[in-house]
Amino acid sequence: MMVPLDPCNKPTSQRRITEGDTVVVYERHDSMRAVTVSAAGVLQNRFGVFRHADWLGRHFGSKVFSSGGVGGKGGRKAGGGFVHLLAPTPELWTLVLSHRTQILYIADISLVVAYLELVPGCVVLESGTGSGSLTTSLARAVAPHGRVYTFDFHDQRADSAREDFEKNGLSSLITVAVRDIQGQGFPDEYSGAADAVFLDLPQPWLAIPSAGTMLRQDGVLCSFSPCIEQVQRACETMRSCFTDIRTFEILLRTYEVHEGALKSATVNEASSEGCSLPGKKRKIRSAGEALDSTQTSSVIARPCSTARGHTGYLTFARKSVQGSQTGAAEVCPTS
Amino acid sequence: MAQPPPQTPTAVIPRAAWEGCSVLLDINDGDRLAFFRLTPGATVKIGDKSCSLQPLLGRPFGSLFRVGPDGLLPCQDDDKPRDGGAAEGQAQEETRDNRSLVDNNTAQTLSSEDIEAMKREGASGDAIVEALIANSSTFGNKTVFSQEKYKLKKQKKYAPKVLLRRPSTRSICETYFKKYPARIGFMRVDTLSLMLSMANVGAYSDVLAVDMVGGLVVGAVAERLGGTGYVCSTYLGSVASSIDIIRMYNLNSEMTSRIFQAPLSNLCSLKSSGNAPGSVQGDAVEPSAVPDESLQSSLEKPSDTEVSDGKAQSTTAQPIVIEAPEPSTDEHLNRGDIPIDIEAPEPATDEHLNQGDISMPDCKGNNGNSIAPKAPRAGKAPSPERMKYWGEHGFSSLIVAAPGHEVESVVADLLPLLSYSAPFAIYHQYLQPLATCMHSLQVSKMAIGLQITEPWLREYQVLPLRSHPHMQMNAFGGYILSGIRVHKPDPLGARVQEKSSGATESMLVSL
């Protein structure tokens, strides 16, 4: 259950892995996959062969070892390979889902959820559904009584997304529909009922008037576009019935941490053998066995050398409150 | 409304201001940002005029007001400033530039006496702005963009606009970050949002929080919980850290009742009880070890455990103590009051800041959307049953925001309180404490997926043919260390391999 729908089905230390659960198998920070546990199931990876049967009854978060006779290479001692079994969360899901489209990652996702001001109970419209990365986080934000209505014009993608949501126990929070939002706009039945609308479309300006009709007053619209030209045009369209239009770009810088010591500038080189600026991976020392006492070892950090340079621009806008005079609502042009 | 909004029986987000609610006033497009409580006597000082806030009652959030002869008046549609306004569309044929601009202060022929006279005769602010434009000899030569700029500048001075905003995590964090960053440990809104995601905060979560940023984190978590789950704000020592910022949120009684405060020492005593992670027998362990008496006695200390009436809150609530001399602490921080109106240079508005003026929002007045007639106090001590539950089941995630503290030992104490596979996010304004903390977690193998992240946020000006990043940007919003607590392998794990010599077993246990 990725998003608990009642207090009983949240993951706690009492929960054990049972048949049918989805676990995220964590090999390394950059290598994970989602696995549905079945008693007869077997997982084989570079760390060995893992029988699901060994996982049953264990805690989420457990470290499990491969069963004897590692499959082939690896070169490790038999049974030495291990993985961790994690409870799925929207963040982990984003890392393991199958990419049917470009997806949104955690930085953009969390800014979207915060700026759309989503809280439990909200109604949010999304188009397109894509691979469902953002959708899953939207569902968590509005659970347990809110609703995400998500639209994609691609039949098969909508089906795959629906299956994923079903498998992750999100069906009661997410409704997937096939619809060309650029061409047809959002369905009239949600008119004035949406607390927030999210657009990830190649020509967002075509859907913006409809988004304006769907939103409650002071509700927030977000449009995600990789290109500034798309943003430009979207913003021009937004000006007719939105205010507070703001465009952002968010990126993450990550840091690597090492234990090491820098060479002293005064001591001669012979004694600097303990020096170890990170080059290759070193065994992490336990706290007790520090470097020799003449060296002052310390933990040092630096930014990782590679990073995502661009994802997209996020443009947020607020549905205008019409002159504070009731009755004067909905003057957005509808096409 | 052209048609009534269908379905969604109760709109969860209040869309209009009500008596007693907390509001954020944005005066002149961000020049001044101030929180107010809509009590009958509340006023805002704009220029030299003190305006009652009564006209805001019942008005939708997002409404714009101007200052009329008798106080605040809602703006009509046509006098709303529009983003990008007149500049739109004319960008392409712009040929004017500043070649003939001479800065000799003679361009304006209207004197300050003339303006005073106009004011006395009751001219509106907009009329004065028009007159200034008509009497400016250079206005016509300006580009459309600088004309807009000129107008806006004059409008701010002579016809100030007041925007009624709804306090939410987004607006509260942005406001503090813009006007009072030290108070929230320089935590930017994108950093806060990232932490809420990383810590998997959602309905029915049991979130353990260390909030030394005034209650911003606790308030944000409570908002995401939406009246379900729990947030337990823990603190070092015997005095709870202030979480007064939660008063800016319009949390209803249900949401408020989900906020608890407990000293770290109490929580740590849970660790040795029921939840022994290594025990093979597992789930059936009776948490008999919960030290009932000690729990009881320490529960009494921090504050009254009873759900009491609203009055008690302001007094008992949170004795504000700056727990440590934070390096970044500026003089504002040392004042006991809440910087509700956090605009520094205008002392006249400061009265709204004072605690006396804002009675706890959560307990009074907001019956409009609260379920119970009387709201419980935020931050009461958890009941022994609740503590026992947390001891057995673990918290579902951890957020630490102690920007002036060393975090390594705190995190070492707190992680065992989490359920297995629970994610956590540790904030800091400095990198080094997180690096040290991350390294020690790597060594202890208590967590995996460890990562230090720094978000970078850039805002853009988007105008036809004039799009570019803002000339000024904030360059730093804080660091986050995130990870996932894991279950350390127990002897059973070793046995399952059927090759557990005594040595391997003990080695595994010690991992």
From TrEMBL, chain A:
Binding positions (S-adenosyl-L-methionine): 131-134, 152, 180, 200
Coiled coil residues, start to end: none
Domain of life (superkingdom): Eukaryota
TM segment ranges: none
Subcellular location: Nucleus
Keyword Methyltransferase among record annotations: yes
Class of enzymatic activity (EC top level): transferase
Record's keyword terms, sorted: Methyltransferase, Nucleus, S-adenosyl-L-methionine, Transferase, tRNA processing
Span of the signal peptide: none
Reactions accelerated catalytically: adenosine(58) in tRNA + S-adenosyl-L-methionine = N(1)-methyladenosine(58) in tRNA + S-adenosyl-L-homocysteine + H(+)
GO biological process: tRNA methylation
PROSITE patterns xref list: SAM_TRM61
EC number: 2.1.1.220
Gene Ontology molecular functions: tRNA (adenine(58)-N1)-methyltransferase activity
Alphabetized Gene3D superfamilies for the sequence: 3.10.330.20, Vaccinia Virus protein VP39
GO cellular component entries: nucleus; tRNA (m1A) methyltransferase complex
Limits of the tRNA (adenine(58)-N(1))-methyltransferase catalytic subunit TRM61 C-terminal domain: 81-319
Annotated family: Belongs to the class I-like SAM-binding methyltransferase superfamily. TRM61 family.
PANTHER family: TRNA (ADENINE(58)-N(1))-METHYLTRANSFERASE (PTHR12133), TRNA (ADENINE(58)-N(1))-METHYLTRANSFERASE CATALYTIC SUBUNIT TRMT61A (PTHR12133:SF2)
Name of the protein: tRNA (adenine(58)-N(1))-methyltransferase
Source species of the chain: Triticum urartu
Automatic annotation (TrEMBL), chain B:
Presence of keyword Oxidoreductase: no
GO BP annotations, alphabetical order: tRNA methylation
Region described as Disordered: 74-100, 275-343
Subcellular location field: Nucleus
tRNA processing is among the record's keywords: yes
A Pfam family it matches: Gcd10p
Keywords: Nucleus, tRNA processing
Signal peptide: none
GO CC entries: nucleus; tRNA (m1A) methyltransferase complex
Family per record: Belongs to the TRM6/GCD10 family.
The protein's name in its UniProt record: tRNA (adenine(58)-N(1))-methyltransferase non-catalytic subunit TRM6
Taxonomic path: Eukaryota, Viridiplantae, Streptophyta, Embryophyta, Tracheophyta
Gene: LOC125530405
